[in-house]
Amino acid sequence: MNIEYSRLAGIVAASLMLASCASNMLFEEPGDATFGEANRQTMMAQVIDPDPQYDELVPVSSGEHAAAAVERYRTDKVKQPDTISTSTTSSGPN
Predict the structure, then answer these.
(1) How far does Cα 31 stand from its chain's mean position?
(2) pLDDT bucket at 10, cuts 50 / 70 / 90
(3) Count of helix runs (H) and strand runs (E) in the chain
């Protein structure tokens, strides 16, 4: 009988680690307390507050700025937004 004990020990260790997992997603049932938790959190992130409470009833705005923006839009002279980069790249050592 030719048994490699290091391979056998690895298999035993791997099976013990897999057996010690607290929860297994493959065997999760719809009756479990955590079933669908990610779905519920995503849904709640998309639902608006049906009764929002604001500090000010009407937000502060400027009619002059709005009128200037409309005029620029009508005359096709819209201000281009600034370009913002959220990541940096490098081409290697210099």
Answers:
(1) 26
(2) confident
(3) 3, 0
Q: What confidence score (pLDDT) does residue 52 get?
A: 82
Q: With cut-offs at 50, 70 and 90, classify the pLDDT of residue 53.
A: confident
Which pLDDT score is estimated for 75? 95
* Distance from C-alpha of 9 to C-alpha of 37, rounded to nearest angstrom: 37
Picking from 19, 46, 22, 43, the residue whose alpha carbon sits closest to that of residue 33 is 22
CA separation for the pair 33, 31 (Å, rounded): 6
Amino acid at 37: E
Rounded Cα–Cα distance for residues 93 and 15 (Å): 45
How far is the C-alpha of 69 from the C-alpha of 62, rounded, in Å? 11
Look at residue 60 in the predicted model and tell me its pLDDT: 81
Residue with tokens 């929860």: 23
| Separation between Cα atoms, residue 78 and residue 70, nearest integer Å | 9
Token pair of 37 as six digits: 């938790």
